[in-house]
Amino acid sequence: MTKQVAFVTGAGSGIGREIARTLGSKSMRIIVADINMEGAEKTVAILKEENVEALAVYCDVTTLESVQEAVKESLTHFETINVLVNNAGWDKVEPFLKSEPSTWKTIVDINLMGQIHTCKEILPIMIENGSGKVVNIASDSGRVGSSGEAVYSAAKGGIIALTKTLAREMARHKLNVNCIAPGPSNTPLIAEIGSYNQGIVQALEKAIPFRRLAEAKDIANAVAYFTSPEADYVTGQTLSVNGGLTMV
Ligand SMILES: NC(=O)c1ccc[n+]([C@@H]2O[C@H](COP(=O)([O-])OP(=O)(O)OC[C@H]3O[C@@H](n4cnc5c(N)ncnc54)[C@H](O)[C@@H]3O)[C@@H](O)[C@H]2O)c1
To answer: Is residue 94 in a domain?
Structure first.
């Protein structure tokens, strides 16, 4: 049987890299799509050491043109795409009234428009195949809100709504579209936020019932489930992976 191909955005770092490794361990071939080519090449090197076929592709999810180019390059290399993991994301934590329009635009473009762009380009490939699995990475902030993350929460809430609608529209084509809402996770992104928000990590660890941040692997394991045959009858769902921080 030919190995499945997974297109993972933001796989040059943090959660995306771990998703790439976990799907690789499930016998998938991986397209590591990122704007950070150094990070993407590092992920590919890790995957190759683990005997996983992988390709680093430049992809700026904020523009449809860049996504189109990345998909074209991926198809030249691997012929098809069976799994799409929309993981690329970014945030700046600050009070809403102090935030600037340029920051709002960056946050919406990366987190929400990015997923719209990749779905537009990759869903038709899956429809042609007669199957496919999409996993969108949102955030618990999109379900319950989060102080200092107004626009990010709005973008992530948009991802949850996008997931539900695409799940309805794609069901007739036998595609599954699901969403994961990570809680605070131990990645370079949270380290960046911690660098200008002293004490935030300690405060979060105290608030989480399991008393630790998520590790990237915790999120990747949930992605593995949604992309597996065991989840063939699951679509339009949002799964929080957060150590019990919120329960919705
Ligand atoms: N870390 C957390 O606490 C946390 C919590 C909830 C949700 N999330 C979400 O998980 C996902 C992964 O986050 P992470 O913590 O691993 O972050 P990270 O910063 O470690 O990795 C994000 C990756 O996305 C890439 N990226 C950024 N802009 C891009 C663009 N325009 N096009 C393509 N790639 C781009 C970066 O280069 C980087 O490799 C994001 O969607 C984030 O919002 C993270």
So the answer is: yes
Q: Measured in angstroms, how far is the CA atom of residue 13 from the centroid of ligand 1?
A: 7
pLDDT in tens, the chain (248 residues): 689 999 999 999 999 999 999 999 999 999 999 999 999 999 999 999 999 999 999 999 999 999 999 999 999 999 999 999 999 999 999 999 999 999 999 999 999 999 999 999 999 999 999 999 999 999 999 999 999 999 999 999 999 999 999 999 999 999 999 999 999 999 999 999 999 988 999 999 999 999 999 999 999 999 999 999 999 999 999 999 999 999 99
Catalytic residue check, 152 = yes
Calculated CA dihedral for residues 105, 111, 116, 121, nearest 10 degrees: 110
Residue 101 resides in a domain: yes
Q: In terms of residue numbers, what domain contains 93? A: 5-184+215-240
The count of structural domains within the chain is: 1
Is residue 199 situated within a structural domain? no
C-alpha–C-alpha distance, residues 118 and 68, integer Å: 8
Dig out the tokens for 59 from the structure: 């992809």
Give the span between the Cα atoms of 106 and 113, in whole angstroms: 10
Active-site residue, selected from the candidate residues 152, 196, 225, 233? 152
Q: What is the CATH number of the domain that holds 127?
A: 3.40.50.720
**Token pair of 64, please?**
């449809």
204 in any annotated domain: no
CA 86 to ligand 1 centroid distance, Å = 10
